Amino acid sequence: MEISGKLYKVLPLVTGQGKNGEWRKQDIVIETQAQFPKKVCMSLWGDKIDQLKFSEGDAITLSFDLESREYNGRWFTEARAWKVVGESAGPSSGGSAVPPYVDMVPDAEPGDDLPF
To answer: What integer is the mean pLDDT of 41-70?
Structure first.
């Protein structure tokens, strides 16, 4: 899944020691740019934290997975980001990266609007 928006807040880095060694976790909050903006907290783990080279207010896109785990009869869900990229500074085209017109059949005869 993907979500795009403005990097709203970078929370403090959390580290710890587990049975497999030391771990690192960085939570960030992204604010969507919809008509009714939402703030969503995402987690970056381990070396994925190094992808976070952005400042609060920057436009970013996150690729993430949702994961739920049970602990003592309760379920906990986490949005775990695995890719962070900055959005280009070009003009917005309504969220679509595809140009409004693409000639899919460049060798077609004039008046022939069938692709086969």
So the answer is: 92
